[in-house]
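Hey all, sorry for the wall of text incoming. These are the three entities for the joint prediction.
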Amino acid sequence: MFRPFEWQDLLPLLEGAWLTLQLCGVSGILGVIFGLILGIARTSPSRIARWISTIYISCVRGIPILVIIFFVFFGIPLLFPGLEPDKFSSAVIALTCFAAAYVAEIVRGSIEAVAKGQSEAADALGLDYWRKLRYVILPQAVKIMVPPGIGFLIGLVKDSSLVTVTGLLELTHAGNVVTNLTGDPIKTFLIVAAMYFVICYGISWLGRLYEKRTGIHVDPLKVPEPAGL
Amino acid sequence: MIFVENLHKKFGPVHVLKGVDCHIREREVVCVIGPSGSGKSTFLRCMNGLESISSGSIVINKHRLDDSKTNINLVRQEAGMVFQHFNLFPHLRVIENVMLAPLKVAKVSKEEARAKAEVLLAKVGLAAKMDVFPGSLSGGQMQRVAIARALAMDPKIMLFDEPTSALDPEIVGEVLTVMKDLASEGMTMVVVTHEMGFAREVADRVLFMDQGLIVEEGTPEEIFSSPRHARTQGFLSKVL
Amino acid sequence: MALYFGDLLPYSSLLLEGLWTGLYITLVAMLAGSALGVLVYLGKVGPGKPLSVLCTFYIEAIRNTPLLVQLYLIYFALPALGVNLEPVWAAVIGLTLNNAAYTAEIYRAGFESVPRGLREAGKALGMKPAQIVRYIILLPATRNVFPALTNQLILLFLASSIGSIISLPELTNAIMSVSNTTYRTIEVLAVGGLLYLAVSALMSLISKRAETTIFRWAVGTHV
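and here's what came out:
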């Protein structure tokens, strides 16, 4: 029934890790794109844009990611009959929705941190909102978005573990499968944990490299740490 | 009272003080002027042990600072310091700021500490602000509280590290007035400052420092009216 | 498709019970985790080198692995160690250990963010290091960490939902079981989501009010 853990069991785990990386890569990129849009909307002079983005961000951040994953996975086929995204796509959709909200807050914080004086200087020079945003504020804001962005990415990798409930064979679910085969949950999940550690620590190492190169360091108390998981 | 001999201070490879000699007598008011980076603040901070000595010696009120057996906290009780950025304790009311050290270091009774604090705050003109938090005070008011706080320990010497540099010009006067009163009462004072008017009026001696050394020293008249060194002249021509 | 919330009515108490369990567990894990976090922080910055390394390793291990995996490990490790408790305990222990690592980092940032000048003023007045920490650093540092800690509380509450995967009987667990019984998946997810939202919004509001009340002296300043 159970067989002892063998080297060949590493293979599904590595495949799971690879799937996790793909999942986070796609969701991360999409999340950053939508997050940028949301973050700009959040700080725009248009009241409607601000309201819609604020409502979206507050809702997503006030609900557990697990609930969002369930909602997307079970809800989309029910709400849009005929539409049945595969597990990977539904995971991407769920993670992107959640990622966008968190990135939006990082974007907002960075835009607001670029000194108010910059905004006023640009106004005084006669730049309209979009030009001011594009040439003065965003170039500076983007630089300081990176350190908290790294933290967010690490959080995304960890949160992707929750996708296991949909049955997608990412790293954590692979761990479940291997556990069922070998009956050795502790060894299996220690390896799973080690793989996550390597991925996350690697990302944070890249982040530290960036901070060293650019000297941009972020106050950890002010960063919205979504990585509380 | 303060004997400084061949004082050297290095921060890693950076040689900030390159052999400073100085003797400050009791009741003397000495002003230290000079360009930024000259080491004036470092020189001052060596006197109460906030910076350690790399080589040389400082004897302050009979305590040898380069001797490891010296109790630095005793030295600090005898030398009060006022900082450029006030450094008031934001979570304590003004009177509590002044009472803290007497209570916890000198271990006086609460009544005694309170009474003394009230006297000192009245002396610097802030009796009315006793029970407020520093956050609601102006810069000048904060600095005056800082002076009262330093005086609460009955120091024999007062060290001022650019006390008015962080203040708006119109507020500088109220702090200088307090310092002038202190000087006229006979307090030994070492003041690192950019306020030449104050130095001229109150100092017994002025030291001009540049690149880690005392380049020239003398009475205010000597330094301001007829400086001998080229660097002193250069500096004064820019600031006066 | 037609949404019908009426079917959920008989299960409302189940949902609320789940909410209550989640809150309860969150508070326990927050209190225990914050206390443990202080110890871990002190261990990390303390003089003992091996303890410091251990604490650093602990913090990094927790912060770079998913909570779910941590819960799985504890859930499976407990019986192996001979301890036979309900899954509730695995979840509480897991959340506590997880929280401790994050609060330790919050304390570190809080202490380091107190301006050097305050420390120097304390030194200049002749105060000893222990006195400086107790009378000068502690309160401003606490004020600095307060928003981060309350944020952590909200995150912890949302994270408690992960316990449902190891059958912790909290709200998400209740949501899924109601969904399985009534097939009103969208409706129950919506209601459950709203419950979470309401509680987290309330927590956020209360902590903001608490911050301005407790730290009255900090109004208008950043220490």
